[in-house]
Each structure stands twice: as structure tokens, then as C-alpha cells.
Design goal:
80 residues, mainly beta, four-stranded antiparallel sheet, 4 strands
């Protein structure tokens, strides 16, 4: 019997972070975020969530921030 299993990314959710300043360049309304959830799958069917990756990018200065680098405003915008 052959089993197909592994970890695959799920749907990516894009979020515009309105009224949040970029800590690097201090531009308003230039941040956008992505949230991607990785799932363990068996026969290409997602069984359970393994991890979630959240990243914020500044469209003006092109700087990226990982979840560990988020400011309080970025965390609050992702929770909404």
C-alpha cells in the first residue's frame, strides 16, 4: 500500500494594514500583510494545521517584517 503524506501550504490571505506606519520609513498606509497556514495532508486532503506564517511588507521601502518583528499596531491589525 502506498501512502501520500506531507506538509503543504493552504490559502494565502492578503491584508491591507490601514493607518499603520512603517517603522523603517514612517510612511502611512503603505503596509500589506500575508498570512499563510501550512497543513499536514494525507492523500492531498488537509488533516490538521501545522503552522501559520505571517509577514508584513512595506510597499514604499520594500522592507519585510516577520511575526517576531511586528509592532503593537501590526499585531492589532492582524487580529481584526
Amino acid at each position: 500500500m502506498i501512502l501520500f503524506f506531507g506538509i503543504r501550504p493552504g490559502r494565502t490571505i492578503n491584508i491591507d494594514l490601514k493607518q499603520v506606519k512603517c517603522p523603517h520609513c514612517n510612511q502611512n498606509n503603505s503596509l500589506s500583510g500575508e498570512s499563510t497556514t501550512n497543513f499536514f495532508h494525507l492523500f492531498w486532503i488537509p488533516i490538521f494545521r501545522v503552522s501559520t506564517t505571517q509577514v508584513v511588507y512595506c510597499d514604499y521601502c520594500k522592507k519585510g517584517y516577520y511575526k517576531e518583528e511586528f509592532t503593537k499596531e501590526m499585531k492589532a491589525a492582524f487580529e481584526r
